[in-house]
Predict the 3D structure of the following.
Amino acid sequence: MIKDLIAEIRNKDEKLVIGLMAGTSVDGIDAALIRLYGHGKETRFELVKFTTLEFSESIRNFILKNSNPDTAKLDDICRLNFLLGEAFASAALDVTKKADIDIAEVDLIGSHGQTIQHLPEAQKLYGFNVASTLQVGEPSIIAHRTGVLTVADFRPKDIAAGGQGAPFIPYVDYILLHSPNECRVCLNIGGIANLTFLTPDSQNTDIIAFDTGPGNMLIDLLMSRLSGERYRYDAGGETALSGTVDPKLLDRMMEHPYLETDPPKSTGRESFGSEYADWIIEISRNIEWKNIIATVTRFTVESIALSVEKHLEPNHPVDRIIISGGGSHNKAIISGLEERLPLIHIEKSDEMGIPVDAKEAIGFAILANETIHYSPSNLPTATGARKKVILGKIVLPG
Amino acid sequence: MIKDLIAEIRNKDEKLVIGLMAGTSVDGIDAALIRLYGHGKETRFELVKFTTLEFSESIRNFILKNSNPDTAKLDDICRLNFLLGEAFASAALDVTKKADIDIAEVDLIGSHGQTIQHLPEAQKLYGFNVASTLQVGEPSIIAHRTGVLTVADFRPKDIAAGGQGAPFIPYVDYILLHSPNECRVCLNIGGIANLTFLTPDSQNTDIIAFDTGPGNMLIDLLMSRLSGERYRYDAGGETALSGTVDPKLLDRMMEHPYLETDPPKSTGRESFGSEYADWIIEISRNIEWKNIIATVTRFTVESIALSVEKHLEPNHPVDRIIISGGGSHNKAIISGLEERLPLIHIEKSDEMGIPVDAKEAIGFAILANETIHYSPSNLPTATGARKKVILGKIVLPG
């Protein structure tokens, strides 16, 4: 009998696992090193170390250039996949070094990769129905450089099963934050804000999860435009807090049709990106820019509050909102939510042992563990897939 | 304990395995369904069925467009990966159907994918040494559509280990065709011709394998150009057999520096492609085109014979040459080799139970089996890798 690497790791009571995540903001690679116990609903973890390896300006530009069909080149895409494999491997080595742990002690890596295309709507192509997605950051490089079993490329299998290839964090919310006593909303405020709704009765077959609308995307875009590129975001929400909401502008924004749509639903840059930001600037010529920021920040708050009131509370009063993602550092968003939803306990995911910035990277460490347990980890109610499937590709070390 | 899918398949005495191969000629997908016994040096197999699913003209053009950095587009590359995933899955379903076997009985699929870029020479890029390769034909689609454990994407791990990501068939030659009594040359005549040299003493650490020069590439290119695109190849070598070798043209071709280079060496379209064909046409204005074809066909024969005489025979007299690949249907090549190397027994791989056209697809079925046995299957002496590594990515069914 040969030594079965995957089974050996799977059967350990305690595993050291690294989750690697790179977001669409193309800032760098988040690496979470965790101690992981169990799997599925029995999963428990402790965060050992979290680091972010920022991309150099030249790598960031190379990624952005090759994320755009007008500027991307085939040979560069081929190189970018291996280049980012090296960068992800470096991030994994870096987080272990900073934790003073030998990489040889690490059991498993889960790597999301960097998305450079996401085309989840099926279209007819030469007789086949084709939906697709493309993440780069070659896992063969990660596994070889680190010597660690690596699971990567989670999204394609859900697309194969007819899903959108996203979101996957609701499954992690379910196994980590489901409570037998409370109705909980797990709210992640990234570029787009999304929530997972967990009732005491939730099963992994009926969980509601959807995008509420913009998170930081509009705030970031407008901070950058209005400041002439001096700021890339509103640090701590200070600008929003120093301004006043413009009720007319807010009213016009609240007419956005996305807010009326019933879930399941998802959105992105096509609805709340550059074009929408242009329109806001166009209709806000006489408004001071701190007031514009205050208003778009309130728009994020209102769209979240409305989602809770309209789509969740009619059936289940919400006890607690657990916030994560970059937007949880924005005090104007947090205080806005507390004011708008006074009966709900609002807290950051740190209170539950999940640092707000590390949550997604931790999520992909947990998803990798599910894969080597051969456990399906997409939620069809969240992704739209026809069935639950085992996500990811397994690359052996060495 | 969970049911361990990979271990269960690995431990079967007899497996049904499909190998899927698509070559750089972009004709279609070869599918070999085999009954496989054992692994490593103990591997034995029987071919159950071999089929080729030809690409439609529109898919072929879509692949060719997206294999060229000047015409490829990011969004189309993203779609092509999933489109070819569907095509590879169809090829797997088709070969089982034609064999009258239920796909549910198949244990494993090994898929090479379609290469759309291969950049194995490392270059400095933003502080990293980057060599790369890109095969498309999403294995998540193959595994989901067929419900069969799939191993794919073999080349990146060898590149990670510093190799060229090719060739991998020499390992298959070693485990299937190594003899304790004879010195054997396994000669594959595809676009490029390559050989694996196996002596009775060969270990998987010292096997010589290299490209001898052009196989069919020049013959195909010149048939197509000289016939005004009427023919894409010289069927059976009939044109070459009807012509006469032009000694002056042959002499000039024999001056090609590649023939002088010592192995390990590899070549491709950059040396024996369109530009070289242009040069031949340029210097052959007064030569009848059947004689040009006879001469370039003889060039393939001479470059193979010279490789045997110059690089192999000084150390080990060769007993047998076992030929596979499309070029083995070319009677002018076969009779040419018999004439040039009269002391060596020359035969097609069919004589060894390996149909000449099915060999590569069978090879990737065998390589997938090595991967699920966690056996390294690159040969550093053939690929240039620093070490032996386990190739491929494993995608679970469902």
